[in-house]
Write a structure and sequence with these properties.
alpha/beta; Rossmann fold; 15% strand; 5-stranded parallel sheet; 458 residues; 47% helix; Helicase, Ruva Protein, domain 3
C-alpha cells in the first residue's frame, strides 16, 4: 500500500501543527484543514485514508462532518478528537461509524495508538474490496467462458472462487478436487481450465471408475493400427488428445490399484507410448483429479498409492456440501427457477416462503445436483406462476436407507451383505440405478461395477 494519507480537521492552528509534528513519519502524508469546507475540498481532490476530526468545529459540528464523510466518502476511516466532558458525543460518533477517538489534551502515545488501530481497519477494508473485485472478475470471466454463473454468497463459495482464480494462473500445477457427489467437482475443474492459459486447448473429462483394465492403456495412451485384434485403425489416447490442455480424472479414487502404477509412471516421465508402438510421445497436459472419497481414506494402504496421491495433489480444493452453506440455497433456487423458465418457456415469478424454509431445513444428500433436479421437476409440474411445497418431493434418501436393515441371524460375510444390500436398494428404487446409488451413498459407476461383479440382474 502507498503512503497513508491523513487529514487533520481542527479549527485551532496549534492543534493542527502539534498533531502534524506527532505524526511525522516517512509513511504518512499529512493534510490539514481549519474548517469543514476546506476539509471536503481536500477529500474531493485527494484519496484520504484517515480523517482526524474535532467534535467542536465552525460551519457544522464534527458529528455532522462525520455523518457526511461516511455518506460521501465511505472508504475513509475517521478518528474523533474530544474533550473529557464530551463522552456522550464520542459514543454517538462511534455509532455513526467513527473508528476511534482520543481526548484533549492528547499525548503522543494516545495519537499513535489510535492511528495504529485505525490503520488495521484501512487494510482490512482494502483487502475486502480486493476480494470482492476478484470475485466479480472471475465470476464474469467464468460466465463468458462457460455460459453460466457460479452461484453463491457464502464464505465457502467466495473462498472457492478465490482458490480457482489463484490456481488457474499456474500452468502445470496438478489439482485434486474433493467433495461429495453433486457438489460440482467437474464444474470447478472446467472453471480452472477456462480461466487458465490452456483455455484455447482441449478439456477432456474421464471417469476412472468406468475404465476396464483391458482398455486402460488403449484409452489413455492410444494404439496403432493392428496393435491387437479389432484395432482396425490407429487411435489417439486421452493424454495425446488433451495435449496443451487439461485432462480431468473424475472419481480417481476408484482407479484399480494395478492401473495406478502404470498411471504414475506416465505422470513422472511425461511421456506415453501407444499400444503397438515403441516410440515415446511427450505430452504437456495439466492433470485435475476429483474424488468423493474422504481425503484420508484416499491414500490409505488398501485404497490408493501414496506416491500417486502426492503426484496429483499439489493443490487441493475441497467443496463443501450444500448443507454446510445453506445461505446459498435461496440464491440457487432463484437461479434454477429462472433457468428452467427460459428452457421450458414458463413464467414462474413467485416462490412460497414455505418452500424456501423447507429447502433450507433439508439436508440435500445429493447437494446442488439434487436441488437442480428438484427445481426442474417442480417447474415441469407447476401450471401457475407460483411454486409451492406441493411441487417438491423432499423425501430424504438417508431415511429410506435406514429401512434397509438386517436381522441379527443373517450372514455377516461382507460380500454377501453387500450383494443383499444392493438388491434391496434396487428393489426399493424400482431398478433405478441412480436412485439406488443415492440410497447406498455411492456413485452410479461404483454401483454398476458391483452389479456386474455380483452378476445381479436388473
Amino acid at each position: 500500500m502507498s503512503n497513508l494519507r491523513i487529514l487533520i480537521l481542527d479549527d485551532e492552528q496549534l492543534v493542527r501543527d502539534e498533531l502534524e509534528e506527532f505524526l511525522i513519519d516517512p509513511n504518512f502524508n499529512i493534510f490539514k484543514a481549519g474548517s469543514p469546507s476546506e476539509a471536503f475540498t481536500i477529500m474531493d481532490k485527494y484519496e484520504i485514508h484517515i480523517a482526524i476530526i474535532d467534535i467542536n468545529l465552525p460551519e457544522m459540528s464534527g458529528l455532522d462532518v462525520l455523518e457526511k464523510v461516511k455518506h460521501d466518502f465511505p472508504e475513509i476511516e475517521v478518528i474523533m478528537i474530544s474533550g473529557y466532558s464530551e463522552m456522550d458525543s464520542v459514543i454517538h460518533s462511534m455509532r455513526l461509524g467513527a473508528s476511534d477517538f482520543f481526548t484533549k489534551p492528547f499525548r503522543l502515545r494516545d495519537v499513535e495508538n489510535a492511528i495504529e488501530r485505525t490503520k488495521k481497519f484501512v487494510h482490512l477494508k482494502k483487502n475486502l474490496v480486493e476480494v470482492k473485485r476478484n470475485y466479480s472478475i472471475i465470476s464474469e470471466e467464468f460466465y463468458k467462458a462457460m455460459g453460466y454463473e457460479i452461484i453463491g454468497d457464502s464464505p465457502q463459495m467466495k473462498n472457492l472462487i478465490n482458490l480457482i482464480g489463484k490456481v488457474a494462473k499456474t500452468d502445470n500445477t496438478s489439482v485434486l478436487i474433493t467433495g461429495e457427489s453433486g457438489t460440482g467437482k467437474e464444474l470447478v475443474a472446467r472453471a480452472i481450465h477456462y480461466l487458465s492459459s490452456r483455455k484455447e486447448n482441449y478439456f477432456y473429462a474421464v471417469n476412472c471408475s468406468a475404465i476396464p483394465e483391458s482398455l486402460f492403456e488403449s484409452e489413455f495412451f492410444g494404439h496403432t493400427k493392428g496393435a491387437f485384434t479389432g484395432a482396425s485403425d490407429s487411435k489417439v489416447g486421452w493424454f495425446e488428445a488433451a495435449n496443451k490442455g487439461t485432462l480431468f480424472l473424475d472419481e480417481i479414487g476408484d482407479m484399480q490399484l494395478n492401473l495406478q502404477t502404470k498411471f504414475l509412471r506416465v505422470l513422472e516421465d511425461r511421456k506415453i507410448m501407444k499400444v503397438g508402438s515403441n516410440v515415446e510421445i511427450p505430452f504437456d497436459t495439466r492433470i485435475i483429479a476429483a474424488t468423493n472419497q474422504n481425503i484420508d481414506g484416499l491414500h490409505s494402504e488398501k485404497g490408493f498409492r501414496l506416491d500417486l496421491y502426492h503426484r496429483i495433489s499439489s493443490f487441493i480444493i475441497h467443496l463443501e456440501p450444500l448443507r454446510n452453506r445453506k445461505e446459498d440455497i435461496p440464491l440457487l433456487l432463484d437461479y434454477f427457477v429462472k433457468y428452467f423458465n427460459r428452457v421450458m418457456g414458463k413464467n414462474i415469478n413467485e416462490i412460497d416462503g414455505a418452500v424456501i424454509r423447507r429447502l433450507v431445513a433439508y439436508e440435500f444428500p445429493g447437494n446442488v445436483r439434487e436441488l437442480k433436479n428438484m427445481v426442474e421437476r417442480a417447474v415441469i409440474i407447476c401450471d401457475a406462476n407460483r411454486l409451492s411445497l406441493s411441487h417438491f418431493q423432499l423425501t430424504h434418501p438417508k431415511e429410506e436407507a435406514r429401512k434397509i436393515n438386517f436381522s441379527t441371524d443373517e450372514n455377516l460375510d461382507l460380500e454377501l451383505v453387500e450383494m443383499d444390500c444392493i438388491k434391496k436398494a434396487l428393489e426399493r428404487s424400482n431398478n433405478n440405478k441412480s436412485r439406488a446409488a443415492d440410497l447406498l451413498n455411492i456413485t452410479w459407476q461404483s454401483l454398476d461395477r458391483r452389479i456386474k461383479k455380483y452378476k445381479i440382474e436388473v
